TrEMBL record:
Residues 322-563 form the Glycoside hydrolase family 2 catalytic domain. One of its GO terms (cellular component) is beta-galactosidase complex. The keyword Oxidoreductase does not apply. Residues 221-318 form the Glycoside hydrolase family 2 immunoglobulin-like beta-sandwich domain. This is beta-galactosidase. GO terms for biological process: lactose catabolic process. GO terms for molecular function: beta-galactosidase activity. It catalyses: Hydrolysis of terminal non-reducing beta-D-galactose residues in beta-D-galactosides. Belongs to the glycosyl hydrolase 2 family. Residues 95-206 form the Glycosyl hydrolases family 2 sugar binding domain. Keywords: Glycosidase, Hydrolase. Its EC number is 3.2.1.23. It is an enzyme of class 3 (hydrolase).
């Protein structure tokens, strides 16, 4: 026992020579200071009565005020209908508060709270420098030691540190921390993801590591590494602090890859800033997504043969540049396949500070082909960068700000200086990480002089730290100072564009790109927040919310679905809308990959955004988990380092035409020599229709790499069919559906079927005789009360109808039974694909729920989850002795130009002539005619 006791004494003595820590996590005394009297009443001298556990927040500790209708949320409430519409009245009751804007906590508090505990400083800390470290404090902190105030810190996205050397002597002390999370003079923007209830929530507390640290009087205050593999050198920018009253001669010792370098310097009292250059060993290689090579620099301080300080940092070597308007990494073109991380942490509210969670999320991103993460208006903790370093992810960080709505920049407000300081805090804390590749001021700014302010911001950082690329802000403005442009123009749906977007107004194609716009600029583009395609809620996800937030928004949507008698369709709505969502994301991503010299894209997003009215835009849910309609392997076919692409001007054909596709590849992995390139056209049963191969000697790194053309006549296709073109380049595969219909259809007698746009006298007479009619409503004639005000397009909903104030489209695609005999000659799956583009673009969505609860549509339209109406494109009823097929699809106008419409109409008529056409639900003519607008 004596032997081990001696070792313990020796270990304690050894540690006393180096930095030592006292962990401050655990139980703290606590008090809410709602009236803000704590300072004047000297709470720092009193013993607070309540208790909380830190790290944590008031919310994780169950503190705050119960949520009610007057809760002072932090974030724009765009959907004022919650406060006005009768259908939401029950959710405004004190015993049933539910908001549809975001995830909802049980309690809420913005303002001042106090945290307090006693600490015992050991004798071994005598004559040491003592620092207090809070990894993530939200938001402004003020610290008292015993009765003396130490200072204030307000970094949002970096650690807050205090020098307590002059306040802590060996013995017992009381530390009191006043935390204020209320937005006051400094307003980064109420929707900034650093503070807003739309995502992490405006929490009050301290998260992550929290400790006191004792250091020798002479120590490394900070070390920045600037590796240059091209020059085989590692430049170190050091700040060595000498806390003694006189100068001191010290040895600076560096260990890297088995090599030791010792330099002797004399340190003056205070801060000593030095720049040293070390050689990079031959074993050091580049860091990137494919080879995340990391190296550890160990460094120490020694004086009179005594070790004063000893530390280490991890770094990677990578060189960013822009050459001929293209993004370059380590000397070759690079492409950012990005998604946003919007600081949504449903279980805790505050950001995760453990590396395991970040490794989990980032591994999932890489499984889906993502190599780039944009942190929208916030910066993650250290663990995120460590995980990104290890996995090879490129991070864009922003300075805690979305200065719009409630705020602005460039006008001399306190937020201007705050954001400049915030950038400094972020770069100091995380600047050595190779994954920290890009820095932007924030998101979508406004302000009278915001361009001048941001030009200065970019110019400053370009001159002061060359380790990453800089841009003014996400979204805009496109300034000459920017090293890359973050611009929302290159995407298939824009804010406010509605049904005028490419995917909704142009016939299906895979031939377009953004070169007509990007060619106007000299900088590379990373397109801003592409996608934003919604999917129906996954109500099975609700059970996952076991933490501080509850999916009350989902509860509202689910209750609406049940009340409309559609509960059994929830899963089907999810999967069918998810298939359409995936198609939309594929279109967006491939357009970016087809654009010459493009720098990349940033999805909004790979996972759901829980706020802003509930934006279910994710292939993954808010927990970064699959929803069940697309796998990572399927997603990587069009989102990967190597993606085969086919430019097809059309996807709908008749069999008297030729199929044509230009095949190319986007290759952002490595040069490919004589790659195996195959193409195959198959039908739905997997039968090969056509196939071939291309011979290419070399595929360099880049995009728009032409491989060859595919062209063949379709006269061998005799039946309506859905075909699939698959292209494989070196084992990387991608595919596209297209459709072929007979130009000359098999004749049949349809003389007893009336095609009409209303139940006029002649049609009613025909029906009363037992005849058949197809009521096809002309586009725009559907009565408002039966769905005429529902904007229906091909694509899914963009972002959500709440936050966009009802931007079209208002629906989430189709749900049908592909085996229904009405669709026997119109090949389809159970969800929307491009063969339905024409029908959706020439239709109205009929509210059949207002006609009858018993009607089962042949083709159903999936409604917005805010309204959950029972909608249909096609349904059938009995009218008197006759049979009526009702179509929200217009089969009257421009039919000579609409190949899909002609084939669908043909399939419907053949069905109506069969024994299968036997409607069971009767409906009177007055009800049917009420579908048509009186106007």
């Amino acid at each position: 026992m004596k032997y081990y006791f001696t070792l313990a004494i020796l270990l304690q003595f050894f540690l006393s020579s180096y930095a030592q820590r006292i962990d401050l996590s655990g139980i703290w005394r606590f008090a809410i200071d709602k009236e803000e009297v704590g300072i004047t009443s000297q709470w720092y001298l009193q013993t607070l009565k309540d208790q909380v556990k830190l790290p944590g927040s008031m919310l994780t500790n169950g503190k705050g005020d119960p949520v009610n209708i007057q809760t002072p949320w932090t974030g724009t409430l765009s959907d004022m209908a919650f406060f006005e519409q009768d259908k939401y009245e029950r959710y405004r009751k004190e015993d049933n508060i539910k908001v549809p804007f975001w995830l909802q906590p049980d309690k809420y508090y913005t303002g001042v709270a106090w945290y307090q505990r006693d600490i015992d400083i050991p004798e071994t800390w005598k004559d040491k420098v003592i620092r207090l470290f809070f990894e993530r404090c939200h938001w402004e902190s003020r610290v008292w030691i015993d009765g003396v105030e130490v200072g204030m810190r307000n970094a949002l996205s970096a650690p807050q540190e205090y020098d307590l050397t002059d306040y802590l002597k060996p013995g017992k002390h009381r530390i009191s921390v006043r935390v204020d999370n209320k937005v006051r003079d400094i307003d980064p923007g109420e929707n900034s993801h650093s503070i807003s209830d739309h995502t992490q929530g405006n929490w009050n507390g301290i998260a992550g590591a929290m400790y006191l640290e004792a250091k020798s009087r002479i120590f490394y205050e900070h070390v920045d590494v600037y590796p240059s593999l091209a020059d085989r050198k590692l430049t170190l920018k050091l700040n060595v602090h000498n806390g003694e009253a006189k100068k001191k001669k010290v040895d600076l010792i560096f260990h890297l890859e088995g090599t030791e370098v010792i330099e002797q310097h004399t340190m003056q009292p205070g801060d000593n800033k030095l720049e040293l250059v070390l050689p990079l060993p031959e074993s050091v290689a580049y860091w990137d997504e494919f080879h995340p090579n990391l190296y550890t620099l160990k460094y120490a301080l020694r004086a009179n043969k005594k070790e004063l300080d000893s530390r280490q940092l991890t770094f990677g070597c990578r060189d960013w540049s822009v050459k001929e308007g293209k993004l370059q990494l380590n000397g070759h073109p690079a492409f950012m396949r990005g998604t946003l991380h919007c600081a949504a942490f449903p279980l805790t509210g505050y950001p995760a500070t453990d590396k395991a969670e970040w490794l989990r999320e980032f591994r999932i991103c890489k499984e889906y082909g993502i190599n780039h993460i944009r942190f929208h208006s916030w910066c993650p903790p250290e663990a995120a960068f460590e995980a990104a370093d290890e996995l090879g992810l490129y991070c864009q960080v922003e300075c805690s700000s979305w200065p719009n709505q409630s705020s602005s920049i460039g006008e001399g407000k306190p937020v201007d200086a705050f954001l400049l300081a915030e950038a400094g805090h972020i770069v100091k804390a995380y600047g050595n990480h190779p994954s920290f590749c890009m820095l932007a001021h924030g998101n979508e700014p406004r302000g009278k002089n915001h361009k001048e302010y941001l030009a200065d911001f970019v110019s400053y950082w370009k001159a002061h730290d060359v380790r990453r690329l800089y841009t003014s802000s996400a979204g805009w403005p496109n300034l000459p100072e920017n090293e890359f442009l973050s611009d929302s123009e290159p995407r298939i749906q824009h804010w406010g564009e509605g049904l005028g977007s490419i995917i909704n107004s142009k016939a299906p194609s895979t031939a377009y790109d953004w070169s007509s716009y990007t060619s106007k600029f000299s900088q590379p583009f990373i397109s801003h927040e592409i996608g934003q395609w919604c999917v129906y809620p996954n109500f099975r996800e609700m059970k996952k919310y076991t933490g501080v937030y509850h999916p009350k928004n989902f509860e509202i949507f689910q209750e609406s679905l049940i009340e409309n008698g559609l509960r059994a369709l929830a899963d089907s709505f999810l999967i069918a809308s998810g298939k359409l969502q995936t198609l939309c994301y594929k279109a967006d991503i491939e357009a970016a990959l087809r654009t010459p010299g493009f720098g990349g894209f940033q999805l909004l997003g790979l996972n759901d955004f829980p706020g802003q009215g509930t934006a279910l835009v994710g292939t993954l849910d808010a927990f970064w988990e699959e929803k069940g309609y697309v796998t990572a392997e399927e997603y990587r076919r069009f989102c990967n380092s190597i993606v085969p692409l086919a430019r097809m001007p059309r996807l709908i054909f008749e069999n008297n035409e030729k199929f044509a596709a230009q095949v190319e590849v986007a290759n952002y992995k490595e040069e490919l020599l004589q790659p195996d390139i195959q193409w195959t056209v198959k039908d739905k049963q997997g039968n090969v229709v056509k196939q071939g191969a291309f011979s290419v000697a070399r595929l360099p790194i880049g995009n728009c790499l032409k491989i060859g053309d595919i062209q063949f006549h379709l006269n061998h296709v005799t039946q309506a069919c859905q075909l699939n073109l698959e292209v494989s380049v070196g084992g990387y595969c991608n595919d596209w559906d297209f459709w072929v219909y007979p130009a000359q259809k098999e004749a049949f007698d349809d003389s007893d079927i009336l095609l009409t746009d209303c139940l006029d006298e002649a049609t009613l007479k025909h029906l009363n005789k037992g005849g058949k009619a197809l009521l096809s409503l002309k586009k725009g004639t559907l009565a408002k009360e039966f769905g005429g005000d529902i904007a229906i397009g091909f694509s899914s909903i963009f972002w959500n109808t709440s936050w966009t104030e009802g931007q079209a489209p208002h629906t989430l695609g189709l749900l049908c039974n592909p085996e229904h005999p009405a669709l026997a000659l119109f090949p389809t799956d159970f969800y929307s694909n491009y063969q339905w583009w024409d029908a959706m673009s020439h239709s109205g969505s009929i509210q059949i729920g207002k006609l009858s609860k018993d009607i089962q549509p042949i083709v159903r339209v999936i409604d917005d989850w805010f309204t959950n109406r029972s909608l249909a494109l096609l349904f059938e009823v009995k009218v008197g002795s006759g049979k009526l097929l009702v179509s929200g699809i217009d089969f009257h106008q421009d039919m000579d130009k609409r190949q899909s419409a002609r084939q669908l109409l043909y399939s419907l008529k053949r069905y109506m002539q069969s024994a299968s056409f036997c409607p069971e639900i009767s409906m009177d003519t007055e009800m049917i005619n009420s579908l048509i607008s009186k106007k």
